[in-house]
Backbone:
């Protein structure tokens, strides 16, 4: 998973996968079939792990606004010396677009859960008076998801943690009730 996350699908060689997994070529083919199958399994595992972490960040705080802030700040590396990674799922979309039905299926199995939690927290925040009641909750959910993707691409591009935190703060300030 880490090799694909670091390099993407096309730039990852079979030899790099063999080294990372510490297995022989025949074991790779016997177990997975091919590089693409390994990639799809790695992406599915990554998506499941990160969606779960995102939901924990979002649902952890009692305050919906604090949950949204924890979600966005959870995308920011702890320090700038950390390798810029971004999101393997976002990288897959950037590398393949929306033309690959198998990748779309992986996304379709994992992403909706985060969307449901986001929408629920936004509505909860509006009901509690923390979030702007004039916003359409569905549009706000889409805005937060696009912000997450943008932050992860920016992270991959080497944008500093301080700037990523500022992006998160900007979004939270715009969602806040006036």
Residues:
């Amino acid at each position: 998973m880490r090799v694909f996350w670091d390099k993407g699908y096309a730039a990852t060689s079979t030899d790099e996968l063999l080294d990372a997994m510490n297995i022989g070529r025949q074991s790779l083919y016997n177990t997975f079939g091919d590089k693409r199958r390994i990639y799809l399994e790695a992406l599915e595992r990554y998506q499941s792990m990160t969606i779960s972490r995102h939901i924990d960040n979002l649902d952890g705080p009692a305050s919906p606004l604090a949950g949204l802030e924890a979600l966005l700040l959870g995308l920011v590396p702890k320090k700038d010396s950390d390798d810029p990674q971004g999101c393997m799922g976002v990288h897959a979309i950037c590398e393949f677009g929306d033309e690959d039905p198998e990748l779309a299926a992986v996304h379709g199995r994992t992403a909706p859960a985060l969307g449901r939690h986001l929408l629920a927290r936004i509505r909860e925040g509006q009901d509690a008076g923390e979030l702007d009641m004039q916003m359409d909750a569905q549009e706000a959910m889409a805005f937060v998801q696009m912000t997450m993707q943008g932050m992860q691409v920016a992270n991959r591009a080497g944008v500093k943690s301080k700037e990523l935190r500022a992006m998160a703060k900007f979004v939270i300030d715009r969602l806040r009730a006036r």
Q: What stands out?
A: Residues 18 and 64 are 44 Å apart (CA to CA). The chain has a mean pLDDT of 92.
